[in-house]
Amino acid sequence: MSTYTTATRTGFEMPALAYPAGALAPVISQATVECHYGKHLKTYIDNLNRLVTGTEYEDYTLREIVEQAPPGPLFNNAGQVLNHSLYFEQFTPTPPGNNRPTGNLKDFIHFDFGNFDNLKKKMEDAASALFGSGWVWLVQEENGKLSIINWHNGDTPMHRRMTPLYGIDVWEHAYYLDYQNRRAEHVKKLWEIVDWEVVESRLDI
After folding, report:
1. Which residues pair with 7 in a beta bridge?
2. Which residues does 107 contact at the CB level (< 8 Å), separation at least 6?
3. Per the structure, how many domains does the chain have?
4. How many CB atoms lie within 10 A of CB 128?
5. pLDDT band at residue 2, thresholds of 50, 70 and 90?
6. CB neighbours of residue 72 within 10 Å
7. What is the domain range of residue 104?
8. What's the pLDDT band for 62 if we cut at 50, 70, 90?
9. Would you say residue 171 lies in a domain?
10. Is residue 154 part of a domain?
11. What is the CATH number of the domain that holds 141?
12. Distances in Å between the alpha carbon of 169 and those of 114, 127, 138?
């Protein structure tokens, strides 16, 4: 499991990108990464640091804040920091030619969804059906089963004691510069750049 973002004596910091901002093009353009990562995520982190200062949450980890904070600005910003840290970590500019899950993750997917194509369709349908802004997640439940969930705004699987594996951001800032209103096209293209080794590393086996 990723460490998401780190906290220092001066607060939470931006998670490092494992690739240059333009490396995911044409699936995700440099302009989108610079806006989505460089501005939106930065704003969530700045807000989170401001909101925890002087409160009981000041020394909490990001996961502890997400799991324990009540609904409101603190939870919303912490959830978005967590979601976005996982999101940017799960992509690679150099996917293999046949970019599909392997190993334990493949076995889990086949057991719970029949095959990878069924999983893709279910996630794409969930992304299309979500009205407004939010996230679609492939998660592992506490009993080990894989499920697909979609939530509005900045809610996050860890708030529900689920393990996030692969997330699709369907807020417009994630895709509008590149795809305008074509959310479904954006969601389909993302499969090309998923780093399945990272996704599998989040699996609890």
Report:
1. 12
2. none
3. 1
4. 13
5. very low
6. 9
7. 27-205
8. very high
9. yes
10. yes
11. 3.55.40.20
12. 25, 9, 12
Task: State how far the Cα of 7 lies from the Cα of 5, in Å rounded to an integer.
Answer: 7
Q: How far, rounded to the nearest angstrom, does the alpha carbon of residue 179 sit from its chain's CA centroid? A: 19
Chain segment 126-142, per-residue pLDDT in tens = 999 999 899 999 999 99
For residue 22, is it within any domain? no
Q: Which residue shows structure tokens 């509008």?
A: 176
The 3-class SS string of the chain reads CCCCCCEECCEECCCCCCCCCCCCCCCCCHHHHHHHHHHHHHHHHHHHHHHHCCCCCCCCCHHHHHHHCCCCHHHHHHHHHHHHHHHHHCECCCCCCCCCCCHHHHHHHHHHHCCHHHHHHHHHHHHHHCCCCEEEEEEECCCCCEEEEEEECCCCHHHHCCEEEEEEECCHHHCHHHHCCCHHHHHHHHHHHECHHHHHHCCCC
* pLDDT band at residue 6 under the 50/70/90 scheme: low
For the segment 24-32, the average pLDDT, to the nearest whole number, is 98
What is the rounded CA–CA span in Å between residue 117 and residue 124? Answer: 11
The two tokens of residue 183 are: 């959310």
Among the listed residues 194, 157, 123, the one whose alpha carbon sits nearest the alpha carbon of residue 4: 157
Quick one: residue 7, left, alpha or beta (phi over 0 = left, psi -120 to 50 = alpha)? beta
Domain membership of residue 9 (yes or no) is no
Torsion sign (Cα): 35, 40, 42, 43: positive
